[in-house]
User: What shape does this take?
Amino acid sequence: MVLTVVGALVAGTAGAGPVAGADTPAGTASDRARVLTIVQTGTPGVARAAEIALAGSDADVAEFLRTGEAAVRVQDDRVRVGQLISVGGRGLREAAQAALNGTPADVTAFLETGWRAPLEQDMRVRVGQIMSTGGRGVREAAQAALSGTAEDVWQFLATGQFAPAERDNRVLVGRIMAVGGPNVQQAAQIALSGTADDVKEFLRSGQYLARARDQETTSVAQLAALAKESGEQATRETEAAKEASARAVEASRLAKEAAQRAAQETEAAKNDAGRAAEAAGRAADSAG
Assistant: This one.
């Protein structure tokens, strides 16, 4: 994209001199034909100035050919260099600014050939940035481009990076799917069955929404398990309490019966001190 824009900006007649010669007779039909050619082929500012000259007198046409075209062309060239600053990388911007700080000849030299080396360096820097954040396929393709020509670097930036990036994205989705929960696995499978944009969307945000749903499901399941466990524990405790109560009732009944028997034995043995004391002891034990 950048190379296309730069090529369009530097193409044309940057730095070219006036179409007409200084010895051309002023105001002739030939002068107007030359100015008409400039309208059709000149840079934007030059073309507009040529139109204005054509709408004027023969003297206006002659003055445009003598000095006006060159003056406007210098300004057009500076505008084009300024446009390069807005689209280029750091190296191209610095070289363009240096040209603008120089003479019209510096601007012309930059537009003719001076932009190429800093642009190529900027492209290599950009490939390195993509390489540092890409997957295995992107890194391999980027390294191959950096080991090649400037055209190889440009082709990688223009088109070559995208196919390996798509493959890397699919590999990453597969890895996430392998360790994810049910919702993550389902969302990942849908993405893999879709387009490259679907895969990107899953990696950008879909995986996190699915993980949140898995986490929510896990939390609900954990709460349900805790509730079930608590219910089972409560049931066990209730049963244990019932059993303890039953044992207590039975123990109370047995104790009451034992106390009654002891009382009866005490009454029956009241004339026998030893037996009476023994029966009284059993009655006390039963009551305790």
